[in-house]
Amino acid sequence: MSRQYLSWSIAQLEEEFERAQDSGDRAAVEKVVSELGFRTTPKARSLLQAAERFLGTAERPRSEQRGAAKPPPTAKTGPTQKPPPNAKGKPSRKPTAEQQQAIDQFQRGGSVKINAYAGTGKTSTLEFLAQSTSRRGQYIAFNRDIVRDAKEKFPNTVNCSTSHGLAFKATPWAYRNNSDKMTKRINANQLAEMLNLRRWDIDRRHVLQPRSQGYLILDTLRRYMQSADAELAAHHVPRHGSLLAAPDATMRAVTEFALHGAKHVWGRMRSEADTMPLGHDGYLKLWALTNPAIAADFILLDEAQDTNPVVLDVLRKQPAQMIYVGDKYQQIYEWRGAVNAMEKIETQGETYLTTSFRFGPAIAEWASKLLVFLGEKRPLRGNVAVKSRVGSVEPRTILARTNASTIAAIIECLDEGKKPHLVGGTDELMEMLRGVQDLKEGKQSTVPDFFGFDKWEQVVEFAKSGEGDHLLSFVNLVEGRGERQLIWALNRTVDEERSDLTISTAHKAKGREWSTVRLTDDFLRSQPGKPTSGPDPAEVRLFYVALTRAKEAVEVPQNVLSLIR
């Protein structure tokens, strides 16, 4: 059998599965399943399971999947008739008092914010809302795995999709018919070649090689495409690496160059006839610029505390009833431009979910101390039926604040003869370490933190300055261990199911939970040169996320606990 999707990435296969699933195109799903049978990554296996569930293969042997007689046709009900709201089964339990308040607010018809603390049954609450009405709904989440899970739980009256999925389906056929145009990405090297970029001596201290110029243009475009802005502007131009300390005259020249290049590339991206790929952020932005109307009576936005401005702008213009669901104290992506809709949006109704099903009172008590620091008066209550504690543990999972601490934990795990798994994979860290190698060879890197530097020694010097203190832990690790040993360690990580220990940054751990967790000592550290009146609220929110990943026990270093007693 020929492999029609042999050259497709897993992201392209996910897009095709979503399209086929929503349109009921069983033949297309079967082709996706056929290709996934050749893939072995955890993401491919997860997608294969979802596709097989859609086809019903999980319940019947493979020998029956092909060539079986089709069941007799059922009576036609007309194309516009919708299945009953409980077509996929109602939740197995009754709503709690807090969940019932959310249902009551929803049924009044106005816009609602549901503030859901960590582990408080956010997903089941959304199911209750969806099951309580026969109106058409649209559920939106950022993560495809969450969307796939929602499709199995929500009634057939609710369409479940990522924001990119909505945009993909609405993109004109002339774009969608070209998978390379839609989903391929162009890197900085490729762009530099396409634009015939040459070395640029901006001033005596700042030189940008073609690859760095290409990256600057692409990152300017990325910031624009994720924003709510209609036009490219100076504030979309990033200030990375050596540019953080660049004089105003240098930044004016850089901004003019980046804007000119970004406008040129964006024009080519929008052209149906041009080979310049749009990419996922590109077709999302195109969709947003059309001021789309989402076909739904109500819209459920999940994880609303970390929403791209471009998506939030689309949703604010919808005539449908809006339900924003999230935990404003779990906003952890503000640094990359995400908007906290739980704080930014005013709604007609507001409710709270404050009782956690995940952990008991001991963990909830410490989490509540963090909420008090952040100005919250409502405590997080633990599940009295769950025994949990804060103290020393033999962890199944280690969570760290920084990439440097995750690598250190991996090396320690390997030294003990154990097999580590790194949540989210090793690509990001490998890119940083290859960036170190490039700099040591006198080549510029497209790693944002190394942008504009020509030598590794410049990064070391920068890290010891006030501007680059966020790099100090990583630089010290590279200087102490060497990038080759760090790459060696990352290459020895394994899939989670084969691991003895799971290791993650707090950012990558968002949305996950484990039985026993140990936190590293790099949380809530004050930065050199910054006021010491207390931890940065953004750091407290990240620590709150990390602390609440544990179900049974969590170990927190004493130096961190002392900051929140």
From TrEMBL:
E.C. number(s) listed in UniProt: 5.6.2.4
Domain UvrD-like helicase ATP-binding: 297-340
SUPFAM superfamilies referenced in this protein's UniProt entry, alphabetically: P-loop containing nucleoside triphosphate hydrolases
Pfam families in the cross-refs: UvrD-helicase, UvrD_C
InterPro entries: DNA_helicase_UvrD-like_C, DNA_helicase_UvrD/REP, P-loop_NTPase, UvrD-like_ATP-bd
Reaction it catalyzes: Couples ATP hydrolysis with the unwinding of duplex DNA by translocating in the 3'-5' direction; ATP + H2O = ADP + phosphate + H(+)
Keywords tagged on the record: ATP-binding, Helicase, Hydrolase, Isomerase, Nucleotide-binding
Chain residue ranges for the region called Disordered: 51-109
BP term (GO), one: double-strand break repair via homologous recombination
Annotated UvrD-like helicase C-terminal domain residues: 488-553
Molecular functions per Gene Ontology: 3'-5' DNA helicase activity; ATP binding; DNA binding; hydrolase activity
Enzyme class: isomerase
Protein name as it appears in the record: DNA 3'-5' helicase
Lineage: Bacteria, Pseudomonadati, Pseudomonadota, Alphaproteobacteria, Hyphomicrobiales
